[in-house]
Each structure stands twice: as structure tokens, then as C-alpha cells.
Design goal:
The protein is mostly beta strands and 920 residues long. The chain contains 8 helices and 44 strands. Helices cover 7% and strands 47% of the residues. A hairpin with a 2-residue loop joins strand 3 and strand 4. The protein starts with 11 loop residues before the first strand and ends with a strand.
Amino acid sequence: MDNALKGLAAGVTVTSSSGQPGAAAQIRVRGIGTINNSDPLYIVDGMPIEGGLDYVNPSDIESIEVLKDAASGAIYGARAANGVVLVTTKSGKKGKVKVNYNFSYGWQSKWHKRDVLNATEYAVMMNEGYINAGREPLYDDPYNLTDAMGNKITTGTDWQDELFNDNAPVVNHDITVSGASDKVNYYLSLGYYAQEGIIGGNFDRSNYQRLSLRSNTKYNVFDVSKERNWLNKLDITVNLSYARVKSKSIEVNSQFGSPLGSALALSPILTPTLTGDAAIAQDEFYRQTQPDYPGPILSPNGDPYTIAGTTYNEMVNPLAALSLPGAQNWSHKFVTNFAAELQIWDGLKYRISYGTDMSFWGNEGHTILYYLTTNNKATHTSASQESDRGTVWQIENVLTYDKTFGDHTFNVVLGQSAMKNTGWTLGASRWNLIDLNKPYINFSSGLAEKGERDGWGGPANPHALSSMFARLSYNYAERYMFQATVRRDGSSRFGTNNKYATFPSFSLGWNITNEPFMKNAPKWLSNLKLRASWGKNGNENIDDFRYAVFTATGNNYILGRGETVINGVKANGMPNPDLKWEKSEQTDIGLDFGFMSNALTFSVDYYIKKTNGMLMTMAIPSYVGETKPIGNVGSMKNSGVEFEIGYKFNVGDAQFNIRGNASYLKNELVELGNDTGWAAYDSFQNVGTITRAMNGEPFPYFYGLKTAGIFQTQEKIDSYVGPEGTPIQPNAKPGYVKFVDLNNDGVIDDNDRTKIGKGMPDWTFGLNFSAAWRGIDFSMMWQGTAGNDVFDATRRIDINSTNLPSWMLGRWTGPGTSNKYPIFIVGDPSDNWKSSDLYVYDGSYLRLKNIELGYTLPANLTKKVFINRLRVYVSAENLLTFTKYHGFDPEISSGGTSLGVDYGVYPQARVWRVGFNLEF
């Protein structure tokens, strides 16, 4: 679903957060609108949807539209500040009943590996690093290595090859029944989708399954419009959908022992498993040194996995970790939408709709006794289960009036909307399971006072919205267009002082082509239109009741001289009764061109969007001793230019269609809302802060020192002096990194840290090409970004035995050998690897996102076997990627303050698919 938006429209940035099955992408419409939450509002068939769109079967989608400017999204008022994604599902087409069956099967594999050292290179580098640190080398002969079983090592273990699950299957089935008559329109579908992950999928630890059902029906109760012009037509629409999702996932994009992070860091001299005496020796060692050691984790062939790493770090054997049972996530989602539309008078319609979004989700899992490292083990068995439910209902009443007087066309809309969201959580856990074959939560056994069982639950805070809206549209002779919208929203997330807010907007259009003075314009100019809009939208995406004070239990106390503990409750946090809507104000100017009867189209838009009163934690003195309240304290600005172009043409029997878009974005944090004007966010190991926010800069940006090469000689170190003539880096040695003294004070410290990159791209672009000729069809979609950086946080400097990226072979080993990568010293006592631009890489990329070749068999052949249409195809995803970044994937979207930081992202898979479409 998210991938369908990639490259679809200018100004829409879609970044895959992970290649893990079921992982949602991060979607940003015209930049990061707010620090709080910049996700757009999703509307499916008129119903706002909570929790993402993974319940929607992509085969059921008729169209996707992204509302970017404030005027087009103003009718949705609340929560439309970050854009609106409108999804319309399919309906039946008039004619005979059609039955369609679609099937596809795919094979997924990694498209890229990181280059790391092999066993010999690793041993040579480790010896060098230890010697440079003044310590004894680790290996007597790096060129004659043996593993734990005494076997000669050549290249050693490629942990990435061991980890990746090549040819992981992905399968899809869809069957639909559709049709329409004068009285009823219907579309019924059943879909099943299953995907196995390219990391952990073969261990049943990373997978995704979705079963979906949909029924879209529209009934014409009566239509007597030919007989009278009042109360003459009534239509009822009933849309029902259900989705069941089951998934398992692994830890990704983490610096703390994720499977991928471990695979990058582990020594290639280690083997995945042990046999013979080596296996016995490992078992005996840990039984003697670790009293709670439960025994080895066994591989599928019965050999014990190697216990990797040292006892103090979090790096583990990733295969052993994946062999442990994982939690099973599940969800059920029912979305219903009932609507009735009555034509009251000629041009006057009344529509009432009622929709519900009922979700049930949870997880269940258990833990066995295991030992990976001292800090990653289980000394008792356990199990946990949690079940959640949430219900959203929305009711809308809308009056619409359409009237034309000569060249004047009017449309008036008046409406009311109300929405409420409620939920519940219930969970339990149990230690010391009686039977691992039945890891159930049984509250009839186990002692709560010993921590052997626990339970939790309660209702979620309710959330409600109440709105009224109006819209006036005017069109004069298809030359001048005007639209004005006003919406007033009230939210339960704000107190009585500011519960309601009003969001106005207007738009203007001038179709210059239809002006009389354009009659003599060149025939090749078929369309010229000028557009302008201005509007305000709101955002209330914060936790409930943040305007008030919560109570905190557990503050127990002994009163008087007795020893009785009295249960205590106290106020928690600080109220803010003046908390109000976050408001986004946007101005848009656009120009549309059409040439050669609109065979060639081009449009350009310029916009400025400013968010004021961002909902963020307020700065208060630390001596207050309370949780910081939420306030309207910051502002953000996004501005940019968007281009879209399309060209349709025929060559003989062949039809071609080319569509492209590109957008430029400038993001600026105008006001952070604290006394300093900056805030530190992510940190990485012991290298310091790596992401930051600051007034006047993009949000967020990478933060660190700038470098100016490598000191080649002691003379260069001595000549690098400050204003007082003293060495700026007095402890440096030849081969150390030369850091820039940015403030020219003669010292390298935190005051020299500055902006060294950013994760948000300057440019995003997409190109779609399709062609058809005599039953053969071909399509491809390219997508990419430019002007964004990646902070590579996969390089571990806090673990002496970690493997190294292959570019470290280009390290400094003497004068003139390298001016980019410093001398290698185990433990980095030189601080060469503190946060700096050495970690920052160009994250721009161009990717062939999808390519497909299909063939539709001639109808005179297929109808002989009662098939109206049969199409077969082969396709590929992520077939080609061009990038300078050496990591697993240039699409890095940790979101929030980690935008562009790569801790070891789960890469997207290269997918080959074959499939067919049948229509009866």
C-alpha cells in the first residue's frame, strides 16, 4: 500500500522504514510539518482510519489521491495539517457478472551486502590495532588460521550469508466478483497475502500474513426523477471490510545486538556451530563459569551454536538468537461504512453516513531457558499475552446544493461530523512455566508475591471530535473558479479554554485558455490555468488529557508512629488549561499547461507551509520536580517547488504513457520553544550526540565535528595551532584525525560541533513509463532522492573484537598512505571516531522500484475455454539501485529524531514475481 505512493505525486516523500514483512513506510507530505507527529490523515471511502492501511488489499484500490495544499484538505479540518491520503476502493461496472482471479508467486533475496573483512584481513587488522594500542597481538600467524575444531580457515564465516534467507517466498491470491444493474452495484473480494522475511523468515521469526474480505454495495431504493423533482431518488451504500493479520518481527535498526548488527560485528574466525571436542569444551566452560547456564542452543542439525563475543557486550550469535521462540502478533480489523443519499429537490441532496473502525490486536509469546551472553540470557521460563481493542465511530450529515444559471455554476456544502475513539487493554504474564509444550497463562498457579504472575489492563482514554463545516464553490464559464471552506473543530484533547478552533481556506483558479483573447493562441496550446490557494489546518495528535493533571498511584507512606503503610496517590505532572490546537498555514501558487490536445501536460507549484503553536513539551526549571507539561511552544516552516509532467502518444498500434514528477523541499525549524534554541537527541555508543534540533536549521540534522584529513607527520601536528600559538590537538599522533577548530579558540571540544548533514532529501522524484502493443504490456517505475545524507552508525568502536568494514583497509599506516581514514587502534583511545563527518555519507539514490512485462492472450483463444481474459506476467521489484552509500539500503527512515541514522536497517528485498490474471 505504502509502496503504491512512491513516485506517485510530487511533494510526497515515501521512505521505507524497513524491509521487514508488514513494516509500514514513513509518508511525509510537503516535509516535516511538526516535531510531534507528521503522519498524514488517511481516509478510506470517506472513513478516517486509525493504525495505518495494512488492512487494505491493494487489489481492491480504485484510486489514491494525495491532498497537499491547505484548501483541498480544509474540508477535513482536524488532523489535515500534514496532508490527506484519500483511498477509494473498487465498485462494480455495469454489465454481466465478472469473476476475477489473480495469483502471483515471488522469490525475495538480498540485493546488496556490506563489505567487511574476511578472516585473514580481520586477523591482520586486529594484530595491528592491538600493537598500535601498546598491547600484544592476538594471532601468532594471521595467514594460517584454524577454527575451534582445528580446521584451516580460508575466508572464514560470512555472517551475512549465514543470516540472509535467500529465495524467501511471497505469495498473493485475489478473487473478486463484481457487477452492476440499474438497481444494485456490487464488488466482493477475498484476498490472501503471505510474505517470509529475508532475515529470520526461515526461523519463523520474520513473516506476515493477511486475509482480507470486502463487500462494497450500492442500492438504488427508488429513482423517480423523471416523474417529479422532489424526493425523487434514494441510494444506500454499504461498504464492509475485514482483515486478519498475523506477523512476527525481529529487532531491526538497533545498535544493541540486533541480528543484522551482530552479523556485521562478529569475528569471521568464529563458526556458526561447533562439533566434537570444541562443542564439549564450550559446554564445560560455561557450566563451570555460569551457574545458571541451561545448556547450548542447538541448530536444526543438532550441533550447538557458538556462543559468540565476550561476556560483557550485547553482540550474540544471530542464528542462535533467531532460534529462540518469537512473539506472535495478531490483529482483526472490521471497517464498516453505511451511507444514504436522498435527492430532496432538484440539485439539493442530503447524505448521512455512519462508519465504524473496530480493531482487535495483541500478541502472545513465551521464553525458554537460554544463554547467549551474560547480559542476554533467561534464567527462568516465562510467557505473556496481551489483547487490545479499539473502536472508532464517525457520523456525518451533509447537505449539498448544485445549481447552474447560464454561465454561473454554484455548489454549496453544509455538514456536521462527530467521531469518538475508545479502547481497552488486558494482559498477563507468568514465570516458571509448568510445561513448555503448553505455555499458557494460568492464574491458578504461581505466586504473585514472588513475581511469578502478573496482570494488567484497563480502558484507554476516550478521544472525541465534533465538527461543523461549510464550502462554497463558484465557476464562471469554466474561466474563473473560486472556492471557500470553513470548518470548526472541537477536540476532547484540549480543555474548555481552547477546545474549539476554526480553520478557513480559499482557492482561486483562472483558466486562461478559455478567455476570448486566447482564441488566436497557437493550436498546440490546449490548456493554461493559474491556481492559488491559502488555508489553515489543525493538528491535535497528542495524548489525551494533557491539559489536565494525572494522578499517580504507588506513593505509599507510613503516617504516625505505627507501621501500617497507607496507599497514597499524588498529582503527577503539571496542567496547561491553555493548551490549544496546533495550526498549519499554507499558501500555494500553481500553473498548469496542456499541449497538443493535452497529450503533453506540465504543472508547477510553489508553496509555503508554516506550523505555529507546535504541541511539544515546555521548558520548565528542573527544580520544579515534575513532568514537563505540553504546550504550544514551537514553529516549523516548509517551502518548496513541485513539478509534474506527462506525455501520452501512439506509434501505430503501440500506446505509450510517460509521467514524471520532482519536488524540491526546504525545511526549517523556526522556533524550538526553549531558552537555548536547540535540543540534543540521538546518541551513538560513546561518540556523543549525533542528531540535534536548532532554530534556523532543518529538523533534525546530524551533529558532530568536521574533519580536515589525517595528520601525516608530527610536524603537521605541531603546526596546527590556535590563536595563542599552542597546538590545537596536543595529544594527537601521526595517523590521527585532524578536527576543525570551528570557533577558532585553539581547543577541540563540543563548541566545535556543528551541522554535518541531514536525513531529509532536498529533491524527491519519480518516473513512470508504460507501453502496450497487441496484447503485450510493459511498465516500470523509477524513484529516488537527492540531497540527503546517511549517518552510518553500524561501526562499533566500543567492542575490541568487532569486525570492520572493508574500507578500513585503506587506513593510515604511514605518511602519505591515507588522508581519509585514520590509524587503527583497538578501543580508539585517540578519539578518532567521535561523532564527525567521517560517519556521514551521501544518501541520494535512484531505484528501479518496479518493472513488469505482461501478455494478454487473444480473446478468440481464451473464450474457447470460457475465459474472457487471461494475462500472464513477470515482474521485479528493487531490481536496480544506484547510490554512493555502501550500507544495506539508502532508504533510511527511523523517523522522528533518528531520520537518516542507519543502525543496521533491515534492507528491502529484491523480488522476482510471476503471476496471472483470469477473468470469467
